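2024-03-11 09:14:02 DEBUG pipeline.ingest accepted 1 chain
2024-03-11 09:14:02 DEBUG pipeline.ingest length=509
2024-03-11 09:14:03 DEBUG pipeline.predict start
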Amino acid sequence: MPDILVPLSLLLGVLAGGAGAYFYLRSRSNGNLQEIEARTSLLNEEAATKQKQLVLDAQAEALRIRSEAEAEVREQRTNLSRIERRLQQKDENLDRKLDALDGREQRLQSREREIEKARADADQIKAQQVQELERRAQMTREEAKAELIQLVEVQARDDAMRRVRAIEAEAKEEGGRRAQMIISYAIQRLGTEYASETSTSTVVLPSEEMKGRIIGKEGRNIRAFEQATGVDVIIDDTPEAITLSGFDPVRREVARRSLAKLVSDGRIHPTRIEELVAKAQTEIDAEMKEAGERAALDASVQGLHPDLIKLLGRLKYRTSYGQNQLNHAVETSWIAASLASEVGADVNVTKTAALLHDIGKAVSHEVEGPHALIGADIAKRLGRSPKIVHAIAAHHEEEEPQTVEAVLVAAADAISGGRPGARRESVDQYIKRLRALEDVANSFDGVEKSFAIQAGREVRIIVKPEDVDDLEASRLTRNVARRIEETLSYPGQIKVTVIRETRNTAIAR
């Protein structure tokens, strides 16, 4: 019992404390609610005041915006009215312009009708005039047109020939002057000598007794010598001399040297002959290589194939009309280089092609065909450029020249071969060439006489004045020159002069 009462008293105490605390807290919360309600009332009043102020400010702003909008609307209306007035004025101006254009178009149509009427009247008058002309001339319109065209054609041809003659004269004068200047510049740098060589060589003997030793027993020595060298040995009545004949200059030189050594040595028999001929051949090969290298050095041409050097050296023993072909090749290279530098062509291509232009002559007796094409084929196989190959092939017009360098090589070749003293001809060949020139000139109609003068460098033609007029004489000059170019071979150039002369005689008594 007592144990139960203690907790109960504690519980009652707790309940009494809790009730006191409740009433205390309730009284305090009532005071806070009153304070909160007073503050809320104050805040509501302030909010109402601010709301009224905001409404007033908003109304004032709305009034301002409205006044500005009304002012802008008034301004836009003013602009629109101004634009409407301008558009109206433009419409009025366009209407006036359209009216003016309509009037002008009507006037133009009226003018066109007048022009058409005038044109029809003119056509009618023209037709009447044509009929009247046909009646008076007693020929149709087509016949008159044909006659007029023929007359105009003849006059035009005559005028064209006069213009051609004037242009040709001017071109010849200017071209001749420039060509002389360029060629003179090229030739002034050169000064070469020429040796006259033939197809035979002579070996001097110490005595007549040596001839018998050269012939040998039953001619075995001379047969062995001719077989080893490929040349003919001519033993005649010429005292203390033997002649070697052969068209291959290299073989002839080998034979000359071998025979000279045999004569000086005194031991002449087939074995010794073969030994000395082989030795002379080796010496000649070395000299030809050296001559080719020297020629390339003189011509300032570098990078040649060794076989080209060797073939070039073989030209040392080759002549044409007495002109040494190696000297001719070097001189042609010099002239071609000078011409190329004057006209602005490729100097290296020109001088190389000029140096090698006659390389085909070194093997022409072994290969069939023109030496120009043979040389071009050799140069192509040994690595020369297409321009050089073409210039070699075209220097005698076996091919049509396509480059400036090819033309310069042909010109340099003609200059070197055509210079006074460069080549020699036999009397028979000289006379045949002159006769051929005169025959070409005499083959044309109207030619009375022709004369080849200046050693074949000029042909003067006298024509019949009653058969050939001045214009025909000009045509004849060009035709003869063209025929000479097509049918004859000659170094340099040939001048063609046509002379037409009329004489009138009267006697005063």
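2024-03-11 09:14:41 DEBUG pipeline.report Confidence is low (pLDDT under 50) at residues 191-197.
2024-03-11 09:14:41 DEBUG pipeline.predict end
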